[in-house]
Amino acid sequence: MPGAITDVFKALSDPMRWNIVCQMAAVDELACTTLETTLPITKPTISYHIKVLYHAGLVQVRKEGRYYFYRLRLEVLDSVLPEISGRLRAEPDALADAEVAAVR
């Protein structure tokens, strides 16, 4: 899970993706057609944003016929947040060295 934290933050940092995540959080499952009517972007752009969220592990995708349905994976956020807290509480010098090495 080395890149998971940064992948999640990168995925959530985009305002459009945050909007999508918020819409998913409000329901059990979100139909692709809902996003097409609620977002001011094209279908290919929606697909791109879903792909980013999917690769970060934040979205589960289900296909039924020609329609896609999306579900937010809250357990991913639940696992990432404690890890962030743990890393930030780590010894400052060790944390700084590890993060600098990860960037290289």
What does this structure look like?
The chain has 104 residues and is of the alpha+beta class. The chain has a domain of 71 residues: Orthogonal Bundle (Arc Repressor Mutant, subunit A). It is built from six helices and three strands. A three-stranded antiparallel sheet has the order 1-3-2. Helix 1 runs antiparallel to helix 4. The chain is elongated, with a radius of gyration of 16 Å. The model has no long low-confidence stretch (mean pLDDT 87).
Quick one: biggest sheet? 3 strands, antiparallel
How would you classify the helix and strand content by structural class? alpha+beta
The average pLDDT is: 87
What's the architecture of the domain at 4-74, going by CATH?
A: Orthogonal Bundle
CATH structural class of the domain at 4-74: Mainly Alpha
Helix-strand topology string: HHEHHEEHH
Instruction: Assign a percent range to the helix content.
Output: 55-70%
Question: What Rg, in angstroms, do the CA atoms define?
Answer: 16 Å
The fraction of residues in strands falls at: 5-15%
CATH topology of the domain at 4-74: Arc Repressor Mutant, subunit A
Find the count of extended strands (DSSP E, 2+ residues).
3
Question: Nutshell version of this structure?
Answer:
By secondary structure, this protein is an alpha+beta fold. It has helices spanning 4-13, 15-25, 32-38, 43-55, 74-89, 92-103, and strands at residues 30-31, 59-64, 67-72. Helix 1 (4-13) packs antiparallel against helix 4 (43-55).
Characteristics:
104 residues; 3 strands; alpha+beta; single chain; three-stranded antiparallel beta sheet
